[in-house]
Specification:
Elements (H helix, E strand, L loop, with lengths): L4 H11 L4 E7 L2 E7 L2 E11 L4 E6 L10 E8 L2 E9 H9 L4 E2 L7 E10 L2 E6 L6 E3 L4 E2 L1 H9 L2 H6 L1
Parallel strand pairs: 3-5
Antiparallel strand pairs: 1-2, 2-3, 3-4, 4-8, 5-6, 6-11, 7-8, 8-9, 9-10
Amino acid sequence: MREHWAEEFVSYTEKRDTPCNRIRHVNGWLETVDIANSRCFIKSVSFDERRRHYFLGVDPGKLSERGDAVVLCGGRKTQLSDIFVIPWKQFFAAIEKSETINTYRDREYFQYKFYVREREGVWTASFRGGDQPILDVTDKRFEPKNAAAYLRSMECRSSAK
């Protein structure tokens, strides 16, 4: 993936006078940021044009952390377009029901794999392995400007607690 969608979204949000504090990068990618005093696990998600879905892996160590929201930032080609703001507890409760999968052929590295896709106007996040939970994230999908406003509104913090 060439695009750093999460970094682009945070920069976009900062330009709209929303306080953002970058907390942690992992392997050069932004992973944790406080946006409007909400602790966010933030990830750039890749879009697979052929399969028509976003996909990502999450390190199992994230389950021991706490926060307010999971912010998935995705785009198509060169345009940031989809921001999913999912309450932290809801997202990680679904991940806990799935199983880790070895994601490399040449070495052992386990992650929780999941997909976000739109079918007939409904956006869902599905997790591989285990009980294969599915989250309806249709109402958690925003354009960048609306995602920034949502994070400022404290709605995501109140629903995550």
